[in-house]
Specification:
With 451 residues, the protein is an alpha+beta fold. The protein folds into 3 domains: 96 residues, 3-Layer(aba) Sandwich (Rossmann fold), CATH 3.40.50; 70 residues, ATP-grasp fold, A domain (Dna Ligase, domain 1, 2-Layer Sandwich), CATH 3.30.1490; 245 residues, D-amino Acid Aminotransferase, Chain A, domain 1, CATH 3.30.470.20. It contains 15 helices and 20 strands. It has an 8-stranded antiparallel β-sheet with strand order 13-12-9-10-11-14-19-17, sandwiched between helices. Strands 3-2-1-4-5 form a 5-stranded parallel β-sheet, sandwiched between helices. A 3-stranded antiparallel β-sheet has the order 7-6-8, covered by helices on one side.
């Protein structure tokens, strides 16, 4: 039985996990790096424990923290060690619950190239590309010719938009391979890349899933994540606009059926490219996603509570028939970045957050908090919901307008510029949206105050 949970993460996701634990009647221990000794969630935890200077990447430190503070479970959040099978093994060896999938599942699906083969066998069409890992540029060149340019080179164990390079022709291949391999080793500790055909105007659509580890899985509809900058998402919404309920339910059911056949346990997200009426399987994330709140607002579900429940009981908290999505939900990621996308660490001197019906804020910010330079620039997620997409969009524009963050630079003006583009308002955006409108969006953003 789970009574006490170690949060092995930081920032807004740590605050989010704490709230879900409280709603489930669980005690919380917050593991923190010395750099993060002023994080917001630490004052609300039942206990806190320092795990080092600035890193959340030591498995030994996290296990020691959990055992010393009497925890029954470890929640990894997203990023850091959330998809590390060795952490899962260490947690379970210590006699604790890991809030996520099994280590064997994580090892199979953690290799994104191998995962494509697995789900191809389970009936999902993969993006055309290479089979298996590529560690030699000459083999890469042969595969690229077969697939056809342009291509994407991707780190096999990558995530968060890192280790990805767009290659237009053979002349660009050697350098792209070198950079992708270096990023793969630097960010994920493993070499090896794979190749995918590049669909210039596809949409990035994902399906939120839960599995019980016993051959049952359910889905919570789709999210459109096509608005991206440098392969990192900026705006997400549920459901994916412009597609019929039948089409969206079909891909959700197919994804759930495939997951069930793997006896997958806990939360997962399958990501697809959608182009010319076809869904192409891209990858699966074996953790909770940054953008999970947009699905929670759309489906009226607490996915973190669901994770905790599955970890304890091995049962799904709801049936597919009990999931009743309503209207539309939109999420904007607020980043500590300037107009040139450079990180903007510093101390928050003023903070005013929006409110009202259908508005949710996930953040760890407070006035006086110092945004450190050591971590990702995500500082808040603003989520709105409405009976229609238009209502959710209007609420988001108002929410962004009300948000005031002073002391650092943010991307608030850029987010407003995105929402005011006709192609976004009419649901015609795609993965090249930011490239196509970069000059106009930048000009618009520069005319608005950043806070």
């Amino acid at each position: 039985m789970i009574k006490r949970v170690l949060i092995a993460n930081r920032g807004e996701i740590a605050m989010r996990i704490l709230r879900a634990c409280r709603a489930s009647g669980l005690q919380v221990v917050a593991a923190y790096a010395k750099t993060d000794r002023h994080l917001h969630h630490l004052q609300y935890a039942d206990d806190t424990i320092c795990i080092g200077e600035s890193s959340y990447l030591s498995i030994d430190d996290l296990i020691m923290a959990a055992t010393l503070t009497g925890c029954d479970a470890v929640h990894p959040g997203y990023g850091f060690l959330s998809e590390d099978a060795e952490l899962v093994d260490a947690v379970e060896k210590a006699g604790l619950h890991f809030v996520g999938p099994s280590s064997s599942t994580m090892r199979v699906l953690g290799n994104k190239s191998e995962a494509k083969s697995v789900f191809c066998e389970l009936g999902l069409q993969p993006i055309p590309g290479s089979d298996g890992l590529i560690t030699d540029v000459s083999i890469l060149a042969e595969v690229a010719e077969q697939v056809g340019y342009p291509i994407l080179i991707k780190a096999a164990y990558g995530g968060g938009g890192r280790g990805i390079r767009l290659v237009e022709n053979r002349e660009e291949l050697d350098l792209a391979f070198e950079v992708s391999t270096a990023e793969a080793i630097g960010n994920f500790g493993r070499a090896g890349v794979y190749v995918e055909r590049y669909f210039a105007f596809a949409r990035h659509i994902e399906v939120q899933l839960l599995g019980d580890g016993q051959g049952n899985a359910i889905h919570f509809g789709t999210r459109d994540c096509s608005v991206q900058r440098r392969n990192q998402k900026l705006v997400e919404e549920a459901p994916a606009p412009g597609l019929s309920d039948q089409v969206l339910d079909d891909i959700g059911q197919r994804a759930a059926q495939a997951l069930a056949k793997l006896n997958y346990r806990n939360a997962a997200t399958m990501e697809f490219l959608y182009s010319e009426g076809q869904f192409y399987f891209m990858e699966i994330n074996t953790r909770i996603q940054v953008e999970h709140p947009v699905t929670e607002m759309f489906c009226n579900i607490d996915l973190i509570q669901a994770q905790l429940s599955i970890a304890e009981s091995g049962c799904l908290p709801v049936t597919q028939d009990q999931i009743t999505p309503v209207g539309c939900s939109i999420e904007c990621r607020v980043l500590a970045e300037d107009i040139d996308y450079r990180p903007s660490p510093g101390t928050i001197t003023k903070l005013a957050l929006p409110g009202g019906p259908g508005v949710r804020i996930d953040t760890h910010l407070y006035s006086g908090y110092t945004v450190p330079h050591q971590y990702d620039s995500l500082i808040a997620k603003i989520v709105t919901a409405g009976r229609t997409r238009q209502e959710a969009l209007r609420r988001m524009v108002q929410a962004l307008t009300e948000t005031k963050i002073e002391g650092i630079e943010t991307n608030l003006a850029l987010l407003l510029a995105i929402l005011n583009e006709d192609d976004f308002k009419e649901g015609r955006h795609h993965i090249r949206f930011m490239d196509r409108y970069t000059d106009g969006l930048r000009q618009h953003a520069e005319t608005e105050p950043s806070n």
